[in-house]
Amino acid sequence: MIILASDHAGFQLKEEIKKFFNKENIIAIDVGCYSREQLDDYPDFAKAGNAKVLEDPRNVGIFICGTGIGMSIVANRNPKIRAALCLNEEFASLARKHNDANVLCLSGRFTSARKAIKIVKIFLTTDFEGGRHARRIKKY
User: Fold this and answer.
1) Phi then psi for 56, rounded to 5 degrees?
2) Were 71 and a residue from 43, 61, 65, 120 both cysteine, which residue would form a disulfide, CB within 3.0 to 4.6 Å?
3) What is the mean predicted confidence (pLDDT) over 100-115?
4) Looking at residue 129, which CATH number applies to its domain?
5) What range does the domain containing 120 cover?
6) Active site residues
């Protein structure tokens, strides 16, 4: 399952990703936020997203805030989460191949919807390579 989380600064990009998912018949769970109003704090949504991601090892998250940095920091406070802030497709590919990232963090202010969808596609379709990378992940 794909878990979506954002604060107000990531809300619009999250909605664009949801439109793409709807067109592609991809099911996702949205844990908030649900508007552009600044009545929320990104740590609350990162924590809610983490909880859902950790319900099943096959789950992945897409967390969005203004820069993606805040969501990344909060998500990575949980040792079972490997959140990667990805600014392009290559980052997304390597985050999955080498780091077995289970959460993609995006910037709502600095990533266009078109670019974000390309990044999301790569993140969702790239597999972990294992091998020497698995050895490294065990050291976390």
Assistant:
1) -150, 130
2) 65
3) 98
4) 3.40.1400.10
5) 2-137
6) 65, 98
Number of domains in the chain: 1
Q: Which residue, among 73, 60, 71, 53, has the nearest Cα to 123 in the 3D structure?
A: 60
With pLDDT > 90 as the criterion, what percentage of the chain qualifies? 89
Contacts of 79 (CB under 8 A, 6+ apart): 140
At a CB cut-off of 8 Å and minimum separation 6, what does 82 contact? 76, 99, 100, 101, 102, 103, 137, 140
What Rg, from alpha-carbon coordinates, does the chain have?
14
pLDDT at residue number 139? 84
Backbone angles phi, psi at 121, to 5 degrees: -55, -45
**Tens digits of per-residue pLDDT, 3-29?**
999 999 999 999 999 999 999 999 999
pLDDT of residue 39: 75
Tokens of 140: 């976390």
Q: How far apart, in Å, do the first and last CA atoms of the chain sit?
A: 24
Model confidence pLDDT, tens digit, residues 41-55: 999 999 999 999 999
Within the chain, strands assigned E span 2-6, 28-30, 60-65, 83-85, 103-107
Q: Which pTM was predicted?
A: 0.96
